[in-house]
Amino acid sequence: MDITRLIIVAVGGQGNLLASRVLGEAARRSGVPVRMSEIHGMAQRGGVVESALVFGDAASTIISDGEADILVSFEPAEALRAMNKCNSKTVVITNTTPLPPFTAAVGKGIYPEMETIRSHIRARTGRLIDLDATAAAREAGNVLSVNMVLLGALTETGLLPVTADSVETAIRETTRQAFVETNLKAFELGRKAVN
Q: What pTM was computed for the model?
């Protein structure tokens, strides 16, 4: 089985860790070996949270610079921050809704324009899929379902060795019952955004 290396980056509170658990469960249900690791920055303060998932018969969860096959970013500037993990063939999927850091919000820093972010990503990677996952999550009924929208977009690319059905089942079993239907709707909206 080919090895697929996925990096997921987000700001604390965006649901990165839940998205990773859903993908891990989908892989387990599909009989696909998966290894996962997480880096929790100052997540409780809006810091970066990074997950690494390696699908296939890999010996390690470490994804070195230039090794990511896929980068999923819940926040556009976080995609820029993770560019060192990408190469000229990496597929990047990012939300276009910014969550500027505190320094930018108080005028002590500058948040880049979305077109500047797009240009940098396109110049260094193989493909960019950018979508307003926040708007899709609102349409699904819960702005906190951005993670599920992006999982839908990721699944629809066909780059992972898991099916949409296995991810849907994992969503049903991994997320809180009160949010299952909203999360499934968000997942479907993410899939449609890629078509």
A: 0.92
Which pair of tokens denotes residue 91? 């597929």
- Residue-range domains of the chain with CATH: 4-132+156-169 (3.40.920.10)
For residues 34 and 26, give the distance between their C-alpha atoms in angstroms, rounded to a whole number. Answer: 10
**Sequence-separated (6 or more) residues with CB below 8 Å from residue 119:** none
pLDDT in tens, the chain (195 residues): 699 999 999 987 788 899 999 999 999 999 999 999 887 655 455 667 889 999 999 888 899 999 999 999 999 999 999 999 999 999 999 999 998 765 656 667 788 899 999 999 999 999 999 999 999 999 999 999 999 999 999 999 999 999 999 999 999 999 999 999 999 999 999 999 997
Our separate counts of H helices and E strands in the chain read 8, 6
User: Which residue has 């696909």 as its token pair?
Assistant: 32
